[in-house]
Amino acid sequence: MKHESYDVVIIGSGVGGGSVALQLAGSNARVLILERGPELPRETQNWEPEAVFCEERYRCNDTWYADGKAFRPGMYYFVGGNTKFFGTAMFRFRERDFGEIVHDEGVSPAWPIHYSDLEPWYGEAERVFGVRGQAGIDPTEPPRSTGFPHGPVPHEPLLAEIAQRLRAQGLAPFSMPTAIDYGPKGICVRCLNCDAFPCKIDAKGDAEIKLIRPARQAHNVELRSGVYVDRLLTDDGGRRIVGAEVLQGGIRYTVHADLFVLSAGAINSAALLLRSANVRNPRGLANHSDVVGRHYMTHNTTALMAVHPFKINTTRFPKTLAVHDFYFGDADDARPLGSLQLLGKIREPMLRAPLALVPKFVRSALASRSVDWYAQSEDLPHADSRITLRTDGAINLHWHRSNLSAHRRWVNKCKQILRDTGYPIVLAKSFGTEVVSHQCGTVRFGSDPVTSALDPMCKAWDHDNLYVVDAGFFPSSSAVNPALTIAAQGLRVGHHLRTEVLQ
User: Fold this and answer.
1) 246 pLDDT exceeds 60?
2) DSSP conformation letters of 447-463
């Protein structure tokens, strides 16, 4: 068995792990990033809907279970993590999202930190990812100490027309903050293949491009791909992590380090902690509170196709428009609803699975005439919504659905909003358990070790040298995409490690 030693081992190369690695780049610490997947190949299939959606060429081959029923999760194991396929949306959480919020079916709990703690790191994350947007229009926008690093991606003609019709309804549509390399010196060609596709020309601001590659330019950061971390090992007292037992190419060996940062994603991080149970930590690592694996959240989400039977949609890059007027309710009803944002352009192969019984020519007609939206509402934490391990080691996911009444009200309101923009037909399709792209909450941070696994700087209460930096630390899910918040906290934790811990 091979043994190696580093100052810091980071498990996972997505937004959380990549942000920490970027902060440690150029320091005196010897840093190793372990990624279970390879670098994603640049190939023609990157932009082929048949390959991505029908053949599921890039989706992982894991078999997970939802209350005993096997499914293949929407996970992507590559350098850069799931961001290789994300839709580039980079929202800050709203300032109120950090406090307690009462919803239809429960309470969204307060965070142990305030928006002001993350605000400068939000600005830094926007700079690192090259986020494009426009401040001052979104009615729920939190305070900013800096503007967006770049102006918004302009609307294509049809979307500019829709934005005007939304304003005519008294709404405040705004330019969705997005991370693409667009503009006079940018390489983005504004293609149809962004949301849910990998970018074969590296124009998408994903974690590999914006975090891992810059970090690897430093002398002290090493990336090792194709490495599966099977378990973490502790010392005899159980408080210090002393090694990561890994599998690479059929060979099992141990990597030692002084400090470990776990950033494998909310589900896989929780699974690794549970899998690493030992005599001193019988419930799993970081889990004396018994919250690891619990409080799983994603979002309540529905895709909406607004169809005009006589109008062809020639938009190529639609991810430029969002509506937040009802995020926290309105003057008539203070109950929070959620966000509405544009999806990437739906095409016929993407409809083949959900509309399998519909003739192909009808699917093609719908796709060519639709403007595609994404209605998103907050999913509330519940202790019984959890990740567990089966006796064969496979992941079992029990998702205790919550806040669905609010989501149904929001979807119905969205349908009316879209009809009022001139699209008489609005089709809806909700997403289920297999869609885990906004997973969060399974290793929550807090101010009390009795009710949380991590402290406010994402260090495990139970261990002296273990940090968990992915969306697992979220106590609540909010109703916006999580990537920028993960990045902001990752940069904050990385700075803390560099300036206060690794001295």
Assistant:
1) yes
2) S-TTT-SB-TTSBBTT-
